[in-house]
Write a structure and sequence with these properties.
By secondary structure, this protein is an all-alpha fold. It has a single domain, classed as lambda repressor-like DNA-binding domains (434 Repressor (Amino-terminal Domain)). Helices cover 51% and strands 0% of the residues. The longest helix is centred in the first third of the chain and has 14 residues. The chain is elongated, with a radius of gyration of 14 Å.
Length: 78
């Protein structure tokens, strides 16, 4: 599953899916990413107000990171 949706819920679902596939607990993932267990829990639940640097530490455990992508243009923006 590649993330191309900026939705916090989508990112959270990705993290949960990868964590479970790796047979890691939230605590184990938090230790690997050097973040708190609460952050992992909040991230998996789709909390929209987490720090990008902390989210990236978690995503980097799975070889991913947040990055800017070109937004789709509205039809009127041609």
């Amino acid at each position: 599953m590649d993330i191309v949706d900026e939705s916090p819920r989508t990112i959270g679902a990705f993290v949960r899916e990868r964590r479970q596939a790796a047979k890691l607990t939230q605590r184990e993932l938090a230790e690997l990413a050097e973040v708190g267990t609460r952050l992992v829990s909040d991230l998996e639940r789709g909390k929209p107000t987490l720090r990008m640097d902390a989210v990236n530490r978690v995503l980097q455990v799975f070889g991913r990171m947040l990055a800017p992508i070109e937004a789709p243009r509205a039809k009127d923006d041609r």
